[in-house]
Each structure stands twice: as C-alpha cells, then as structure tokens.
From TrEMBL, chain B:
Domain of life: Bacteria
Designated name of the protein: Molybdopterin-dependent oxidoreductase
Domain Oxidoreductase molybdopterin-binding: 89-224
Originating species: Novosphingobium flavum
Phylogenetic placement of the source organism: Bacteria, Pseudomonadati, Pseudomonadota, Alphaproteobacteria, Sphingomonadales
PANTHER family: BLL0505 PROTEIN (PTHR43032:SF2), PROTEIN-METHIONINE-SULFOXIDE REDUCTASE (PTHR43032)
Length: 280, 250
C-alpha cells in the first residue's frame, strides 16, 4: 500500500492507485495453490485415522474428543458427547460411481480423490516446504520493507473497543470505506490478516513439525510447548479449520467489495479507489 | 432468458474438472518424482538438525493403558513361525548375515544375555495415532559389532515372518539409525514377553521414525551395500507397494 500522504495529496475517489506490492501479490497467488493442496491432502491424511485426541498419546482404545464414523449407512460426527448425523458430507457419501463409501471426508474434498494415505503424504509433505519457506520469506520481506509496521500494525487508537465496535457496525451494514480511506486496512481487516500471519500460519507449521518423530528428537521443546503430539495434531486440524474460515470470509468480502477491482489489484497491483456512496 | 447451463451445473462441472485435474497431476510421473524427491530434503534436514539426539522417553505412568498393534496382528500361517510359536520360541534364533565377517544365529537366550537397554517411547503410526510403551532388548549396534560389518555394508534389512498376501514383510534402515543408542531389538514389552500382536518373538525399535519402520516378527537381519535388488528396490514393503517414504522421520 502507498505511504500515508497529506490530505491535499491523497488520490481522489475513482483514481487508479498502486495497492499491493509484488511480494504480497506473488505470495498471495502461491498461497492459493499451496493452501488448496495442503487442505485437500490434509483431509485425506485425516481419513486414515479420523479421530482427534488431547495429550501425549492417543489411539483407538483411548478417548477421542472428535471422531468421524458411520452407523449403518449414516455418516456420524461426534464432538465430545454430541453426535451429529452428517451423511453425504462426513463419514458416509456416494463416490463418483454412486457407491456408498465410509471415509471421513468425501472424495471431492481430498487429494487424491481415491483413498491413498501414501499419495496424500507425498503432496502434503512436499508442499509443506513451499508453505513454510514462502511464509518465512514473506514475513522477513514484510518486516524489512515496512509492510507490517505501516499497514498491519494495529495502533493504540484502533484497539479501543469503541473503534472496533464502530468498524463492526460498518461491516454489518456492508458499508466499506471509499476514496483514499479504502487504501488503508481497517481494524477488522488488520485483525483478520494478523491472525493468519501471526497465529494460524505459525501454529499450523509448528504443530506440523511437532508431529514428526524426527523433529521431536531434534527439538523436544515443541512437544512441551503444545502439550504432546496428539494435542499438536488436534491444534493442527483446528488451525486448518481457522484458515478455511478465513478463506470463506475473505472470498465473501472480495465479492461484496467488488470482485473485479479486488482481483485486478491482487494481480496487477493497480486498484481503483471506490467512489463515495450515492446517498440519493 | 433461458439458461442452457445452470450456474449450479457450471460450478459442479468446474469442480469435477478440477478434481480430475488433481488426480491427473497425482498420476503424472514427472510431478510424482518431484514430490518424492522432497523425501531427500526431509532426510537431509532432519539428520542435520537431529544429529545423534535421542527420541523423547517417558515415565511408566505415561504409558498407554492399551497399546494397539500396528501392521499385521500375527505371523500365523507362516509354517516356520508357527512351529517356533508352538515351542514358545525355545529353538528360534535370529539370523544375522549378508555383508558381515561373522554370520550369527542368536537365540532369545543369547540376545537376552547381551547388555540390555530399556526405554519407554512413543510409537507413531503413519495414520496419525500414537501409543506409548516400554521396550527392552539389546542395542542393534551390539549385535552388529558381534557380526562385524564389512566396509561395503550400508543398510540393514529386516526380514519378517508376517505376510501381506504372498509377500513377507521387510524393512530397512541405514547405519546412522542402526548404531543409534535407542535402536534396539525388543524381546520384552511393558515388562513381559513381546506379545504376538506386537511382533513376537523380536521386533525392531527405531524410535525416530514412524511405525511401519518398526519391523515385527524379525527372523533375519541382512547387511547390504544397496537396496537395489531387494524386492522392488525401495527398501521396504510399503515403500515398494505404495511409495511410502523410506525415511519416515516425518
């Protein structure tokens, strides 16, 4: 994003302005591919043992806090003691040929679409390098070029409940900033991007490493940090869920804010400042 | 205006194209080779970070109350193993051969007479579950020093009595893991004789790798210069059958 300028020099609504740096645009589109592969292959890996545990160990005889299973032809999701029937989505579905299958996630959500833990691991573990190295490079670059300090840092004023509440009200009415104000991230945007950059992505990378027996020997402190391998596995899954939620809200906001302008901004870097709303 | 293709239909069609595309990429030999080559990066980076570090060990009260078995739950049906099991493995012996100066046949008694190591460790199945249990046995390094490896030896292959269909199970490790202090040949689990489900009479514990490397029902250890020529050439049953990683530290 452009540096802050005095009001007299701020671009007028309707003007075409530089919005996203090359580093942001490259990383954004790399993430589209990487997160797609990681999510789909990760869901296949989950299918190999569709239960989640808290603690240092966990297997079939131990108590799982989440389990996807089936009862007859019904798909079942159990969280704690709560049981949900999820036929078609979780635990039971019809494959492309119409046959009933009982894997946790259906074929259209997994990579590959047929059951293969080995193939899913090939994808997941190779793209883990792309995710981790891309993230590290982006973080480093954004620290050096001031992107984090200038655009993502949440100021003291923005942290005030009144300011956040005001922003929530604006969002709820689908009233987005116009003119030069649209160049700056608002506090809800900063919170969303900040959660991904500083919470979800570090969490998903570190919990991924914590599941590796080789890394447990190299850095046992990771096990202590997360409270054991099975807790790390549960957190890894929850962080993935967090990224999916971010993705859903992100796409919704792009659609509401003007998809063509937003997508052009992320491809070319050029963005047309929204005009003031017509109050007529 | 009539819509020849509904929006919903279009999304569904796009979705199945994407799905077919992914599966096509999954089957593409060049891309698959690239994905598989990431295994070298895993091994090299983990070996660099880990050095000789030990896998975490646990206290007795941290063990799984009920340790489920991995892989085959028995080697029954293999006539040789059946005969030994009927005699409670009294006349069973472990064969150590291949690129060694002195091939060995070690009975359970001989293995128990060697210096022993006991360790309570976590077993991580490639599927995602973990169980913690105690294992006792001689270090593999002790046995290999007795047999005296020839300079050309680079890999240890574990030939097992259990089978998947007609194929016996087999696994392999390199010398770094073979001489790691926690790599033991376990004849005892949680204080009792190794149960059938866990690979009686002897299983490998190589604690910094996943469950499928922990060969059970071990009958023979063969020292080799290369994994080429061993069944499919990738060093293990699952490695040959479905491209599981030979280095399973992750």
């Amino acid at each position: 994003m452009a540096d802050q300028q005095p009001a007299s020099q701020q671009p007028a609504p309707g003007a075409l302005v530089r919005r996203h740096r090359l580093s942001t645009r490259l990383w954004h589109w790399l993430n589209v591919i990487t997160l797609f592969v990681m999510l789909k292959s990760g869901l296949m890996i989950f299918n190999a043992h569709p239960r989640l545990y808290w603690g240092i160990y966990g297997a079939n005889f131990d108590h799982s806090w989440l389990q996807v299973t089936h009862r007859g032809d019904e798909g079942i999701l159990r969280i704690g003691d709560a049981v949900f029937v999820t036929t078609g989505l979780l635990g039971s579905y019809r494959d492309a040929g119409g046959a009933v299958q009982f894997h946790a996630f259906p074929y259209w959500l997994t990579l590959p679409s047929n059951y293969s833990l080995a193939d899913a691991r090939l994808w997941h573990l190779a793209f883990a390098w792309v995710l981790a190295l891309g993230f590290a490079a982006y973080l480093l670059w954004s620290l050096l070029n001031g992107h984090i300090r200038r655009d993502l840092h949440i100021t003291r004023g923005e942290w005030s409940p009144a300011h956040i509440w005001g922003d929530i009200k604006q969002h709820a009415r689908l009233r987005f900033p116009t003119g030069a104000a649209a160049l700056r991230y608002n506090v809800l945007q900063k919170l969303a991007y900040g959660s991904v950059l500083f919470v979800l992505l570090p969490l998903i990378i570190l919990t991924g490493l914590t599941m590796s027996p080789g890394m447990n020997a190299a850095i046992p402190a990771l096990l202590d940090l997360f409270g054991g391998r099975q807790t790390a596995r549960s957190l890894h899954f929850l962080a993935a869920l967090g990224l999916v939620l971010f993705f859903v809200v992100h796409i919704a906001m792009v659609l509401l804010a003007g998809p063509l302008n937003e997508v052009r901004g992320m491809i070319t870097g050029w963005y047309r400042l929204p005009k003031d709303r017509d109050h007529g | 205006m009539a819509e020849p293709i509904s929006r919903r239909g279009l999304i569904a069609a796009g979705g199945s194209l994407l799905l077919a595309g992914c599966d096509k990429l999954n089957g593409n030999p060049a891309l698959r080779g690239l994905l598989i080559s990431a295994e070298d990066a895993h091994r090299a980076s983990q070996r660099l970070l880990t050095g000789g570090a030990l896998a975490p060990e646990f206290a007795e009260n941290q063990r799984s109350p009920n340790f489920r078995s991995n892989g085959n739950a028995t080697a029954a049906g293999n006539a040789e193993w059946d005969r030994h099991a009927a005699e409670n493995f009294a006349r069973w012996s472990l064969r150590v051969d291949g690129l060694v100066m002195r091939p060995l046949d070690l009975t359970l008694e001989a293995l128990k007479a060697l210096p022993q190591r006991s360790q309570i460790t976590r077993h991580d199945c490639v599927e995602g579950w973990s169980a913690i249990g105690g294992w006792t046995g001689p270090q593999l390094g002790t046995v290999l020093r007795m047999a005296s490896l020839l300079p050309a030896a680079r890999y240890l292959v574990f030939h097992c009595a259990d089978r998947f269909g007609p194929t016996p199970y087999y696994e392999s490790i390199d010398l770094i893991d073979a001489f790691h202090p926690q790599t033991i040949l376990a004849h005892t689990m949680n204080g009792g004789p190794l149960p059938t489900g866990h690979g009686a009479p002897l299983r490998l514990r190589v604690e910094r790798q996943l469950g499928y490397k922990q060969a059970k029902y071990v009958m023979r250890i063969e020292a080799r210069a290369s994994l080429a020529g061993l069944y499919g050439g990738k060093g293990g049953f699952w490695e040959d059958r479905s491209d599981y990683a030979w280095y399973a530290g992750i």
